[in-house]
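Below is a filled-in request sheet from our internal design queue. Each sheet records the structural input a requester submitted and the sequence that came back. We keep these sheets so that new team members can see what a complete request looks like end to end.

REQUESTER: design group, bay 2
PRIORITY: normal
MODE: inverse folding
CHAIN LENGTH: 236
BACKBONE (tokenized):
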């Protein structure tokens, strides 16, 4: 049993934690005991509370009797089609100029992609056609241990590139489920490329994928997401 706190830096909406970061806390804990044939699937059960001691044990993050998030192993084949074809860093940087979140962001304080979060990852996933987004990311030194970026921040970086393949202005959504696999950890200060891809929707749910590449074009991490349409006012 471990106690963790979601500090305000790691918020998504104004009053709750970023979904990718929180999923990473739970998912990386479970992944440590899994073999290559399985990956963690994390389901967020409620908006993750900020600045509270939460209990993390046996793949479950709880706030007292309330389950915040829980992880279960699934076959690694679930992510077999999650890898998005890479683009050059130059194309990813060019896409950032069209990042819609700079002007109309439902959660501007988001740790991963919020323009108002000065201590966040500052990703700016812009459209590149074919239902895809792309951006660059250069991880800061405070995200790393022994020079390599901590896995929880790779989970976080996989979050919003998928989310911005959705029309978030017309269909505001929050992360409901994230299944991810970290293949390798980049060095702090190394320019990476993050991509997202729209997969489809069903009612209030939207399905996306994302991939993170290092400077040499090597896959660092892959993910699939389920997003839930919400009223942003209920979270902000």
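RETURNED SEQUENCE:
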């Amino acid at each position: 049993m471990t106690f963790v706190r979601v500090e305000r830096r790691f918020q998504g909406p104004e009053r709750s934690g970023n979904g990718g970061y929180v999923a990473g806390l739970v998912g990386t804990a479970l992944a440590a005991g899994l073999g290559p044939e399985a990956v963690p699937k994390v389901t967020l059960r409620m908006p993750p509370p900020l600045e509270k001691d939460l209990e993390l044990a046996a793949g479950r993050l709880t706030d007292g009797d309330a389950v915040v998030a829980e992880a279960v192993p699934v076959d690694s084949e679930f992510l077999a089609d999650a890898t998005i074809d890479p683009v050059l860093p130059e194309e990813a940087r060019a896409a950032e100029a069209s990042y819609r979140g700079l002007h109309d962001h439902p959660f501007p304080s988001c740790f991963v992609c919020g323009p108002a979060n000065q201590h966040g990852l500052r990703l700016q996933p812009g459209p590149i056609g074919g239902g895809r987004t792309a951006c660059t990311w250069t991880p800061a030194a405070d995200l790393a241990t022994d020079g390599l970026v901590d896995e929880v921040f790779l989970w976080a970086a996989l979050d919003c590139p998928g989310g911005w393949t959705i029309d978030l202005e017309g269909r505001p959504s929050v992360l409901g489920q994230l299944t991810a696999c970290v293949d390798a950890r980049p060095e702090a200060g190394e320019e990476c490329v993050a991509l997202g891809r729209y997969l489809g929707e069903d009612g209030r749910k939207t399905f996306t994928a994302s991939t993170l590449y290092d400077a040499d074009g090597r896959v660092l991490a892959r993910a699939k997401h389920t997003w839930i349409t919400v009223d942003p006012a209920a979270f902000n």
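SHEET NOTES:
- The domain at 2-234 is CATH 2.40.160.210 (Porin).
- The first strand starts at residue 2 and ends at 4.
FILED BY: M.R.
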